[in-house]
Amino acid sequence: MDAKIAAITGGGQGIGRGIAYAFAAAGYAVSIADPAADAGEEAVEYISKLGGRALYERADTSREEDVSRWIARTIKTFGCPEVLVNNAGINANQPFLELRIKDFDHVQAVNVRGAVLCTQAVARELVKAKRGGAIINIASTRAFMSEANTEAYTASKGAIIALTHGMAISLGGYGIRVNAISPGWIETGDWQYSGRAKIPHHSDTDKAQHPVGRVGVPDDIAKACLFLANDAGFMTGQNIIIDGGMSVKMIYV
Ligand code: NAD
Known about the structure:
Layout: E1 5-9, H1 14-25, E2 29-34, H2 37-49, E3 54-58, H3 64-77, E4 83-86, H4 101-128, E5 133-138, H5 151-172, E6 176-183, H6 204-208, H7 218-230, E7 239-242
Parallel strand pairs: 1-2, 1-4, 2-3, 4-5, 5-6, 6-7
């Protein structure tokens, strides 16, 4: 039970895959839940080839039975994870006046209910085992600023920010810290399942709207996850914005 174990939702592709690789490289056994089996299996194969330990469970983390099955298998295989990254996220961008409520609800189910279910499942086990842990919620700068017609997504990310401070207070007494990361524009085209991956291209304008001069990569987020998991013992209920400075840049139109 002394091994370091990290559970990552949506770890098959994109930012989640980057987080999974970074935790594996840092010596963690990694458990990935993702409905995309080709992606999840490929991520595990990559980690195993490099000598790391990983498992993949086909799971939709908005479904309680999938989450229970995933966490039970993780515990049986590796032990109880002391790090959970609630990374799985989808959007349903539609003109607001035509936004279908079932699509709105589905986004909240994956992005918000999924984070609640996974945190409950992991935190219950940590409390039973009298161990502390770190929960990391992937929010978005879109919790704080918007393009038109993104209400389903922005609502879900606003909820994640609120949940982060809520769960930090509720779980603090058990030694469980809960923090959020709000990424800005992170390029994930080359972090998809190999059959769907694309070589990214960014124009000079894309780069120039970031004070750091580039679009983000999954590793920018993964490094902050490792910090929150390992070196942030006096931090809980907080949100870290990682967006290359995009959201503090003043724009006159
Ligand atoms: P992505 O689409 O590249 O990868 C998401 C992964 O989650 C996929 O493997 C997908 O199969 C999986 N997934 C989808 N539904 C799921 C479900 N119900 N249960 C479990 N897994 C599920 O997305 P990404 O860009 O890597 O985004 C990851 C997280 O980062 C999301 O929460 C997203 O909102 C957030 N984010 C991304 C960006 C960005 O620019 N890429 C910016 C801000 C926030």
